[in-house]
């Protein structure tokens, strides 16, 4: 299961509305940073047939098969602190992260 807070879902819905198209958002991982893995987000116009789909607060979230094992149980939030804003990920599979917070290990 992958879930979003209402703040995260509103941010995605607003962005999709402004874009004028989109089926939802894809969440994945890639190798990067000092700890090894980083989150990747992209808007989905046409879902891949191999994606797993979750619906959370009227947003469709698509996960590719390779990323699903690392993301199962993920909670996405969206935070604003001063001039900084962005998605915050709470991942029960995460064992650690680098000092700058850009990458994580499982």
Automatic annotation (TrEMBL):
Signal peptide: none annotated. It comes from Psychrobacter frigidicola. One of its GO terms (biological process) is iron-sulfur cluster assembly. Belongs to the HesB/IscA family. It comes from the Bacteria. PANTHER family: IRON-SULFUR CLUSTER ASSEMBLY 1 HOMOLOG, MITOCHONDRIAL (PTHR10072:SF41), IRON-SULFUR CLUSTER ASSEMBLY PROTEIN (PTHR10072). Pfam families: Fe-S_biosyn. InterPro entries: ATAP, ATAP_core_dom, Fe-S_cluster_asmbl/transfer, FeS_cluster_insertion_CS, HesB-like_dom_sf, IscA_proteobact. NCBIfam families: iron-sulfur cluster assembly accessory protein, IscA. Its cofactor is Fe cation. Residues 2-102 form the Core domain. One of its GO terms (molecular function) is metal ion binding. The lineage of its organism: Bacteria, Pseudomonadati, Pseudomonadota, Gammaproteobacteria, Moraxellales. The keyword Lipid biosynthesis does not apply. Keywords: Iron, Metal-binding. This is Iron-binding protein IscA. GO terms for cellular component: cytosol. The keyword Nucleotide-binding does not apply.
